[in-house]
Amino acid sequence: MNTAFSIFIVGWTLIMVGLLAIGGYFMFRKFLKRLPKEDGKSIIDWEEYYIEKTKNMWGKEEKAFLEELVSPVPELFRDIARQKIAGKIGELALEKKKKTITQDIIIEGYIIATPKRDHKFLKKTLDEKNIDLKPYQPLFDQ
């Protein structure tokens, strides 16, 4: 009984240390994104800036389209992904001096903001929406 309890304690300790390490990793990544860059703003500050500057440029259909595109992301990471993608979309819209957010800007921002390792899932999602990927191929190749 004593050895079984000891094994249980050691196992539980390893599980807890593992979970704490995983959580610490994600917290550290968030911390790094909050560190100010040369311009005095962090990555997250810029995302929030672009979202705030373009929030009145979004229509209901565009918001719904972004939600559809973000839906395959696991729920735990969906808010972070949505903010990153919406920030990139806002940045592109302001760079191109657009008056409204269009589906093309959403797709372009979504491709740029998505890590290259996830482009396979992104292409699948866009195919399911019957969106022609040919005009966006250069963005995938970057």
Plain-language structure description:
- The chain has 142 residues and is mainly α.
- It folds into two domains: 34 residues; 105 residues, no CATH class.
- It has seven helices and no strands.
- Helix 2 crosses helix 4.
- It is elongated, with a radius of gyration of 20 Å.
How would you concisely characterize the structure shown here?
The chain has 142 residues and is mainly α. The chain contains seven helices and no strands. The termini are far apart.
Please specify the SSE layout and strand pairing:
Blueprint: H1 2-34, H2 43-54, H3 60-70, H4 75-95, H5 103-113, H6 119-128, H7 137-141
Order of helices and strands: HHHHHHH
| Percent strand | under 5%
| General form | elongated
The largest β sheet comes out as: none
Number of helices: 7
Helix percentage: over 70%
Structural class: mainly alpha
Radius of gyration: 20 Å
Number of domains: 2
Q: How far is the first residue's CA from the last residue's CA?
A: 60 Å
Average of per-residue pLDDT values:
87
How many beta strands in the DSSP annotation?
0
Enumerate the spans where pLDDT stays under 50 for 5 or more consecutive residues.
none
